[in-house]
Amino acid sequence: MTEKKKSRRASLKYPALSPHHNLKTRFEEIEDLASYANTLSEEDKAWLNSYAQEEICANFNHNGPKLNDQTDPAVRSRIYGKNNQRNRCIFTRERAQNTLNCLDELDLDKEDEASNEDSYE
Question: pTM value?
Fold first, then answer.
């Protein structure tokens, strides 16, 4: 029987605090936490990692202290609802796929097309 290869994310001590080892839709939220996580003590990093696992990643089966009551349906509904809302957001999906168009770029494209049409006349 072959053993499953350990992922790079699984080998990290605090995987929920690494924006590059999470989904792109979670990148900005986790990047905010990671920006100051290196200034915290090990105990605080473990708590912050648990917070990110539960609140951002919607993962209740993680190693470390459990912050929310997993049996409370209202808590689970709130966390899963926030996760589903982020996944439905068009802006978040476009940014994660790198297909987001800025209004400034759209205006420049229209101006270029208009100037090209004028030059043909």
Answer: 0.71
